[in-house]
Structure formats: structure tokens, C-alpha cells
TrEMBL record:
Organism of origin: Marinomonas phaeophyticola
Origin organism lineage: Bacteria, Pseudomonadati, Pseudomonadota, Gammaproteobacteria, Oceanospirillales
Protein name: Glutamine amidotransferase domain-containing protein
Source domain of life: Bacteria
InterPro entries (alphabetical): ChyE-like, Class_I_gatase-like, GATASE
PROSITE patterns: GATASE_TYPE_1 (PS51273)
SUPFAM superfamilies named among the record's database cross-references: Class I glutamine amidotransferase-like
Alphabetical list of Pfam families matching this protein: GATase
Domain Glutamine amidotransferase: 11-111
Length: 158
């Protein structure tokens, strides 16, 4: 199914978190549990200016803050994909795979209160120091509106 979407430019596909991972793996990338532990809290990512698509070049920000909660991540991106967002913890944070597939590791659909609730539910399986750092990171602003705008622009491209 994903391969047929990849070859049909009229169909657009978005993948968020696990969707990001499964699409990347289905197209030849590699997904593994991160040796760095949990990605949790508000994560700062860098905009990759060398491969940013035209539809995403709508602001001059060099970094975006987004909510994350994951252990697995894309270790190796599929061939012909372009990294749009990256950081040291997650080097394949947001991928544009062909003109019609866009994936992201973070959760632009979450708000901080929802993440705090998830962290409370999972407090028995997440290391205490990771929870403390993630809770402190919730003080940062988040840029989910920029990602929502990028999604809208991506989906409206022909």
C-alpha cells in the first residue's frame, strides 16, 4: 500500500510518531529502540536548511520545539528521503519522502497537559530522572502551529 502511495503523486500520506517509524521502515529505513533512552517532553529540533521543501520555508526559525514521547525511532532514513527536522537525540525527526509522504517523530497533535497525563500514567516504567527532565522541559514554548501549517501546505500541494 505505501509503495503504491509513493508512486502516486495525487495521494498524500502523513505519519506521526509510530506512523513515522512504520512508513520509514516499510520504505527501506531502519527503526530501533533508541540507545539514548526515552525521548520525552518538549524536544528542540533544528530545521535542516539544506533540504527544506518550498512549502515549509514559511518562517525564518532555525529551531522548533515539539512534544515527544517515544523510545523507538528511525535510525536510518529510507533512500531518497529528505530530513527536514533533526537533533542529536533523533537525527531523522521529520522526513519528506518523495513529494507525497511526510513523517514526523514528535506529537504536534498533543498539548502539554495531555503529555503530563501520559507521563503520570507511565511513571512506573520511565526513569525518575527522565521524568524530572521532561517535566522541566514543559516550561518551553511549543511550535505545533508551525507544524500544523506545514501539514496544511504539504497536503494542498499538487
Amino acid at each position: 500500500m505505501i509503495r503504491s502511495i509513493k508512486s502516486n503523486p495525487t495521494i498524500k500520506l502523513l505519519g506521526i510518531c509510530f506512523g513515522h517509524q512504520i512508513i520509514a521502515q516499510a520504505l527501506g529505513g531502519e527503526v530501533k529502540k533508541s540507545s539514548k533512552g526515552w525521548g520525552l517532553g518538549v524536544s528542540t529540533t533544528n530545521v535542516s536548511t539544506d533540504s527544506i521543501p518550498v512549502w515549509a520555508n514559511l518562517n525564518k526559525k532555525e529551531q522548533l520545539n515539539l512534544i515527544v514521547i517515544h523510545q523507538d525511532q528511525v535510525i536510518e532514513a529510507p533512500k531518497h528521503s529528505h530530513v527536514i527536522l533533526k537533533n542529536d537525540f533523533c537525527p531523522n525527526y521529520m522526513l519528506n519522502i518523495t513529494p507525497n509522504i511526510l513523517t514526523i517523530q514528535g506529537h504536534p497533535e498533543f498539548n502539554k497537559a495531555y503529555l503530563q497525563s501520559l507521563m503520570n500514567i507511565k511513571q512506573d516504567i520511565i526513569p525518575k530522572t527522565t521524568l524530572l527532565e521532561a517535566t522541566k522541559s514543559l516550561e518551553k514554548h511549543t511550535d505545533e502551529k508551525i507544524i500544523a501549517h506545514w501539514f496544511s501546505e504539504f497536503l494542498s500541494q499538487k
